[in-house]
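USER:
Before I trust my own judgement here, I would like a peer's view. Write it directly below this note and I will take it from there.

ASSISTANT:
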Amino acid sequence: MVFKRVLGSLGVGGPVVDTVLDRGPVRPGGVVQGRVRLRGGGRARDIEHLALELIARVDAGHGGEEGAGGVAFDRLRLSGGFRLDTREHRDIPFTFHIPWETPLTELSGQPLGVVLGIRVELASAGAKDHGDPEELIVRPLPVQEAVLGALGRLGFGLVAADLRLGHIAGSGQTLPFHQEIELTPAPRYIHDMNEIAVALLTGSDGMEVVLEADKRGRPFSGASSPGKRLPGGPAAPGRHTVRHEHLDRRDWTAEVDSWIRALIEARAAHTPRAEGIASGISAGTAAGAAGGGMVAAGLGDALGNLGRLGDLEGLEGSRGLRDLRDPGHEGADQG
């Protein structure tokens, strides 16, 4: 995967940049390796710094409105100052450790419509320019597959997997946005909810699962503007913590089903049941759920495919995580 771009804002005859990624898909908490290739332009230049940024296209967070431009959510400085001579060729290798909360772009090989990229920033003579982003494909961790696969087997259907600005109240979220996976209800819950949203916030020790029902396109009620956290806590209904280890020792379908039942019971205890909640579900949604979950056009049968994974035997979290990082590159020089 390569992109080339003349950094035009640095003037006529500016440097040409190629970014080469050595790997394809990655997982949250893993590494992206590659190299930045620089070719000098028509005259020598003093380069002030060279950096890489992870960027994401993020919704504004209310009603699904599109935010303006990409959000940079991590950065790697590759080098300080150096001189790039006329027509000089220079390769700078990198190992970029991506955040554990990096959102997913694929489920079971099906794209989710989430756009992530890696782009180069080069500064010279007080001016900065950014290369075109190179697409980053992120697939789920074993612990994420376990939870999403259980939802698929229960009959929940995938609607969307948007990125939303803001923090989820009471969570350990560190990025300025979170991924919200919206699902239609499983047949057994068709009369209890219109829709359910799931956030999977991963870290080095495990994952926070945040569930909220009857959302229909609204952001999490605990979501806030960037930098602000609203009251709440991990003990609230719909909050669960899962570790990476020993995934094969648990009945995920039964466990996730118990989470959903507890969420419904908690809502029923605190909110009067609305008249005609079932009639508020469109006929198309009801028909889709009765058939095992409706999948939005263009998303493919991603959640359904995960639901058929089923066999987690031997998939111990520690072994699955071992493949995410290459110990030989932990101390790699970034040039």
In short: The CA atoms of residues 169 and 229 lie 6 Å apart. The chain has five helices and 17 strands. The chain has a mean pLDDT of 75. The longest strand covers residues 45-59.
